[in-house]
Amino acid sequence: MNGDKSTLSVIVAGGGTAGHIEPALAVADAIKSIDENAVVTALGTARGLETTLVPDRGYPLELIPPVPLPRKPTLDLLRLPGRVRASVRRTREVLDATGADVIVGFGGYVALPAYLAAGPGLLRRRRRIPIVVHEANASAGIANKIGARRAARVLAAVAGSGVAARGRSDAEILGIPVRASITGLDRAALRAEARAHFGLPADGPVLLVFGGSQGARSLNEAVSGAAESLAAAGVAVLHAHGPKNTLDVPEVPGGPPYVAVPYLSRMDLAYSAADAVICRSGAMTVAEVSAVGLPAVYVPLPHGNGEQELNARPVVAAGGGMIVADGDLSAGFVAKTVIPLLRDPAQLEEMGRRAAGAGHRSAAAEVARIVLDVAALTRGTR
């Protein structure tokens, strides 16, 4: 806890999924690089990925009760007010104990209690803590829509996200904060090391395939189904299929390897080894793949509100990738569309350049400066 008020205290609220946690930690890193004395505390819940990711990055984690918002009218909806009160009460305890100067929220069920707890209490006088809201997705969630109403600054990855406040037509567009190990990646310099790390050939095209932390069945089936065609074309594959899945990949004597792994812990090396990617189009995935300048075939999740397709559209419009519907991804598509791309170095280079141009490498630093500016302004008025 932060008892020294000569130091700045920042709360980052972005627990639950990697799509919320990674931008929060990227901003935390950027804040520390600007002000090494700043104290950054993460909010999270006991059931989120933050219980592993946050301590691994060296930040204190304070747990609060989760407030999942029911998508349908069920008995859970009746329990929601009590859950909100309990979570806000616990969050206020954290804010008081840390002497929080500013909250930066990234949406999700950890951010909502933080936004609500930032205001003055009903039964006692307490200071209002300024909020900075960042929306990573092309379509804003409920938590950030609520937070934007009382935020000092509202930021977003892309235009039209639906996060607006105080008469602004939309948020300030900065992109998604991505960790420095990705934004500063020199793929060409790491290429040989990366390929050796995964047992891939030093020369020839490499296709990277991943479907998020749990994998994706449609990606797994389509690409593994094209294994013989890929090998015949001289294309090696690095495929993260998910820890609960397996791949049945036929061996092709004399062909380049098809390296199948449950999970990729070194995404920097995976990106460096690859020439193109087949992946989902979650906001964080699109941000990282475009930031490192990799051509991509984005396969949006077939369910939900179409948000994943919206995430990929700006990069595709810039010429840095293509979108294929989940139902249209097949072994035949890989053979007819992806293999010719991988065998065309000039096209790969041009698409990579356009992808990098659509990315936002400086987003974490820009968000960090805004957070520090908001905190400094508030501290100066006390």
UniProtKB/TrEMBL annotation:
Q: What is its EC number?
A: 2.4.1.227
Q: Which GO terms describe its molecular function?
A: UDP-N-acetyl-D-glucosamine:N-acetylmuramoyl-L-alanyl-D-glutamyl-meso-2,6-diaminopimelyl-D-alanyl-D-alanine-diphosphoundecaprenol 4-beta-N-acetylglucosaminlytransferase activity; undecaprenyldiphospho-muramoylpentapeptide beta-N-acetylglucosaminyltransferase activity
Positions that bind UDP-N-acetyl-alpha-D-glucosamine: T17, A18, G19, N137, R179, S213, Q308
Where, per UniProt, does this protein localize?
A: Cell membrane
Q: Which GO terms describe its biological process?
A: carbohydrate metabolic process; cell division; cell wall organization; peptidoglycan biosynthetic process; regulation of cell shape
Q: How the protein sits in the membrane?
A: Peripheral membrane protein
Q: Where is the Glycosyl transferase family 28 C-terminal domain?
A: 206-366
Give the pathway annotation. Cell wall biogenesis; peptidoglycan biosynthesis
- Which UniProt key words apply to this protein? Cell cycle, Cell division, Cell membrane, Cell shape, Cell wall biogenesis/degradation, Glycosyltransferase, Membrane, Peptidoglycan synthesis, Transferase
Which residues are in the Glycosyltransferase family 28 N-terminal domain? 10-155
Which InterPro entries does this chain map to? GlcNAc_MurG, Glyco_trans_28_C, GlycoTrans_28_N
Q: Report the GO terms under cellular component.
A: plasma membrane
Predominant cellular place of this UniProt entry's protein: membrane
Q: Which reaction does it catalyse?
A: di-trans,octa-cis-undecaprenyl diphospho-N-acetyl-alpha-D-muramoyl-L-alanyl-D-glutamyl-meso-2,6-diaminopimeloyl-D-alanyl-D-alanine + UDP-N-acetyl-alpha-D-glucosamine = di-trans,octa-cis-undecaprenyl diphospho-[N-acetyl-alpha-D-glucosaminyl-(1->4)]-N-acetyl-alpha-D-muramoyl-L-alanyl-D-glutamyl-meso-2,6-diaminopimeloyl-D-alanyl-D-alanine + UDP + H(+)
Q: Which family does it belong to?
A: Belongs to the glycosyltransferase 28 family. MurG subfamily.
Family annotation (NCBIfam families): murG
- Provide the function of this protein: Cell wall formation. Catalyzes the transfer of a GlcNAc subunit on undecaprenyl-pyrophosphoryl-MurNAc-pentapeptide (lipid intermediate I) to form undecaprenyl-pyrophosphoryl-MurNAc-(pentapeptide)GlcNAc (lipid intermediate II).
| Protein name (database record) | UDP-N-acetylglucosamine--N-acetylmuramyl-(pentapeptide) pyrophosphoryl-undecaprenol N-acetylglucosamine transferase
What organism is this sequence from?
Rhodococcus jostii
